[in-house]
């Protein structure tokens, strides 16, 4: 009993922590891949990869639930809504189960199946079936009971021969017996009232073979084998006989009040109560696209069809009806590989490469843009055949001009949201590796508006597209013995216009076209002191330091100005002290990206450990976000970018795009745009007061109306926070507080007020 109490307290604590911080997070999820559907009399419940949405069949209103709301980031495999208990169950591939209470929107994650002493690869939840308040959960090892009233698990049934673990695909109740279809071990049944169902001897093998589903539909028991044959059960002979043959194997079968719906990848078959086909919906009837179907259900005479890549489609039983897409807006896919923010929007691409820069098989995905008007998608058919789009740069002088790098065909130019030109081997200085490989990465603009790119696996690996549409190429052979085997990653430009290029085999290359200076930071105490020669990012910060991320940890070049004076550049680790032990910051971490915010803090994205936010000198870890303590949908971070005006930090992961409302905005040039929020501070508000629009190194003093100083600080970037205490000792009283702001030289000043109501 104590274990159960501690377990539920742990779950509550996690959810409470999430709810306290959820206001700082936003989710930008794709709902295009429908995993499963469920329904009540007036609402459709849809599960995508790691998010849910609901459609009211009467009003048409759509709402969503994702990791920002407390949903797990694991991959969903099934969903079931109980109208009687007003609870929604979500099953996951790893065995996790989530219970969502419709009455208060609470979310409870239950880990009993995960914690079973079974191989992790057989814990997938395949199906839910409710009977008399008990849900029978079909898993890859057997069946588990779950009580909807007590929210507690009951018995587990291992129904294979001699009690072995077998994959159960679906269960149903027919004539007071429970029937289970299994993937490779036939259809088995037992008396539903039998109190000893956990005894495998109580389960009788009805028919052998491989079965994908079983369902009770009025007076019939229907089963489908994995070859696509529909069978009817004969209670007299206690056997199944072939009734119909589908054109391909079924991916889903379910009943509603009036219909039986069987789904294949390209068709939905709808049967009436007499099991007579009344409508067949084929994917090629949906003329805008020919989707792959995943499942289908109905509410009254409205049919809802889940698809693999095109979200939720609804139509009616009528043959003459049209098709409507009811999917919430979002990116094309959840696996966003690269993103780029502007003051008013952000762009996302979905091509990718693995840990050794291998882009195969190449991806044929489009491009997404988000702004206040919503999502805009550029389909693959309009990008001139460019595959594996992996890097983005937006012209700082013209937000309507965007460039996308491809590990397939070069550099794509987009103007006014329309692809306009593809730079490749025949019309630019970009060089190809082969007929099908022109690799461009590391896009970045310099301060004069020239676009710099990396061109991998060729001698002239660094190139620039000048503002007048002319090209220059620079050879890297002076410091690389075999540039034709070097793959380039990210590239950054510092205040001296030095380009810092990450490589897979030669660490970091520094290049400055003024004098054509080329230098290298790589492995070895006399060659740069990197922990490994596979570097992924080199980011200059606001204090002229270069933060280098590798696949085996972090290094810092103390002064970027040394690029011109030192013959050999040397980077060093950051040593921190934890629990009285000296250790290396980010030791052996596979670092994907490093981004510097307005306060010179570093956001560090990793391949498998989530996101770290560290202080300017790295001595303090301010945040460490993972899937376990935040709405981050994956610990694998593909990209990070910051909207410098708002402080919103975007995280592109393998399972979704989310953002965190940071407070470190870019510094302003003047104090003309200083503002304070919230103002007034009301009793129910528990957060901090933000003062934004600051210049760097501004002095901020806050005093009460009588002139008593209660807070003082110096800005790093464009925003500071005040916790409404008097130097951290106690909450200040209600009243008006004066905010005095002055520039470092004292010439420019500003005065603001904030009212606090306790």
Automatic annotation (TrEMBL):
The keyword Signal belongs to this UniProt entry's keyword annotation: yes
Domain PorZ N-terminal beta-propeller: 44-203
Signal peptide stretch: 1-19
Alphabetical list of SUPFAM superfamilies matching this protein: Calcium-dependent phosphotriesterase
Domain of life (superkingdom): Bacteria
Source organism of this protein record: Flavobacterium luteum
NCBIfam families named among the record's database cross-references: Por_Secre_tail
Keywords: Signal
Name of this chain's protein: T9SS type A sorting domain-containing protein
